[in-house]
Amino acid sequence: MKLPCFVCFKIIYVGLILSLVGTNVFIPSSIQSVFAAPLGQEEQPPPTETSTPVQTETSVPLPVETNTLTATEPSISVPTETSTPPLIETSAGIPDSSGMSAEPALGSYFCSEQSQIPISECNVLITLYNSTNGGGWTNKSGWLVSGTPCTWYGVTCTDGHVTSLDLYSNKLGGSIPPELGSLTNLTYLQLNRNQLSGSIPPELGNLTQLQSLILDSNVQFDENWNKVGGLSGIIPPELGSLTKLTHLDLGDNQLGGSIPSQLGNLTKLEMLELYSNKLSGSIPPELGNLTKLSLLWLYDNQLSGSIPSQLGNLTMLTWLELNLNQLSGSIPSQLGNLTMLTWLDLYSNQLTGSIPSQLGNLTNLQQLWLFNNQLSGEIPSTITNLINIPDAAGTYHRLKLSTNRLYSTNAAVRSYLLKKDPDWESTQIICYKLTVTSSPTAGGTPTATPANSSGCSAGQYVAGKTITLSPGTKTGYTFSNWTGATVTSNILTMPASATTVTANYRPITSTVCYQLTKIASPLTGGTITASPALSTGCVTGKYKAGQVITFTAVPKLYYHFDRWVGGVNATTNKLTMPARATTIYGYFGANLRRGTTYNDTYTAGIDHTSTWLTQSNRLYYGGTQHFTRTRTSSITINYTGTRLGMYYTAGKAYSRVSIKIDNRAPVVLNEYASATTYKKLWWSVLLPNANHKVVITYYTGNAVNATVNFDGVIIQ
């Protein structure tokens, strides 16, 4: 009797499976159970592990355990009677029906079929692999192939948990997955010298057992040696929660923002490396809490501000590099407390002041580089205490003080420096003061460009600096010459001494007269007069260059003067006549007219800048809006008439209104309303029928709803 085809097929595969059971090939129990049970065979458990291999910090891959299904062996895919492929667990722990290939696809590893670590930790490892281009790693031994994740390259386990990930220089790409923050037993995480990009996940702050976090050197360089890629964004403040950390290295990336003050919580830290990034802002004084630090590298950033004196608390420090930043201010004398220092680099900043004598306490120093700053004054004699700095060897000096403004008259210091830094004196920047004056003072405002030499204060220059002088001649004068130093075609070469140069001018005695045109706008608004009416030797309305003219604007009835246009000084009403024909304008504004009522909507002649509030449920005189003024606010009204009436609303608390017409003493209205009262009317005294200016100032108390509302005016 012929057996059905699917039965023959099953018998063949059963034989194959049974022949593999007990061999070194790892067969998941889910597959064994599918075929063993129908033949009456007992289900074979997966091989047990007698111990957990330990990965060393050098990341040398250990031998893969014998229960590994290698990529070169044939895949096993046995269909059931319904031809449904076996279920494969994904990296998220969710079964799918994709089947097995000879080399497992990304995300198809059997996390549930291993017993070395929790499934959740196994899933995190797979996520790391997928997120960082695991297929392109230099060494991916065991990853997603071996059933023992603790033997995967770079993975170390202790007591059934992942405790170390060391994938140094392994061509990891992509970004660091935030899921790493759930490996809460990690004590060591090293992903440096790879090609990672993106930000540092703040979830890494959950790794409270971490002792070493090393993410440095993930940048690449283009053909012009510009940085490409690398970790970016800010340093997460959450890293301040890693209080067991002893080594933090985020250097040589493209991290920006400021250094989080929370890093001052890492009091067990021994090495802090944030060098070669784009960090800005000041150095947090909280770093002075890290009293176990032996190495602090913050060089090659954009840090500014002063060096915190609190760094003097780091008495275990042996290596301090703050160079290649924009630090300013003086060198803190407290750095003299760091007596274990062997290396101190503060060069290429903007440090000023003198070298503290306390640096002479650093007798263990083997290198001191302070060059390319703005340090000044005499070098302290205590520098000769630094006996462990070797003598200069050719052009390489372990003591460098060049490109500052330092000097020494001490024979012992000069002898010491001759051995350690032979060219220190010849490379100092000596700045000399340049004073630029004018004669007469009214003739012009001379200037010098640039304003100073690099490394010198404003108005100071190094000898030999080329300076361009500009006479800045004023109207009515002409420039004659420079005196006090040799100036050729307005160019001065700075001598090696303090120097004063003077720009000399002479008045213009020109007979040329220029037309001055005065225009009132509108013509009916008023008149403009000029005094004097002419310059000597000119006809009326014409002036010589340099002539000072005073203008008077007289508004006609129903107008007020508004502003000048054309060069007249708004405060003095004066103009210095230029050497050209000139037109000036006087603008007049229309007043509020007699016999008219104006409501609180916008009206020309009422100067208001505060908020208009809609009060649709209240009736105000002349409209449904009111103009709210609070605490010492004022409006100005120009009107023509004999009498002004003002409508206003008193608030619910102490309120006061001051009304000043022209130059008369102000009238003060005090309101003590217990409730809001509407449409109150105040009348001024009778005045001549003329142009008037009224300034209304509102004062209110501190209570809620304490306001005074301007509602409108009546002109009689």
Characterization of this structure:
There is one protein chain. The protein is mainly β. Among the domains are: 282-429, Ribonuclease Inhibitor (Leucine-rich repeat, LRR (right-handed beta-alpha superhelix)), CATH 3.80.10.10; 431-507, no CATH class; 514-590, no CATH class; 596-715, Galactose-binding domain-like (Jelly Rolls). It contains 4 helices and 48 strands. The strands form 10 sheets. The protein has an 11-stranded mixed beta sheet with strand order 3-4-5-7-10-11-13-15-17-19-21, with no helix packed on it. The protein has a 6-stranded parallel beta sheet with strand order 12-14-16-18-20-22, with no helix packed on it. Strands 38, 40, 41, 43, 46 and 48 form a 6-stranded antiparallel beta sheet that branches.
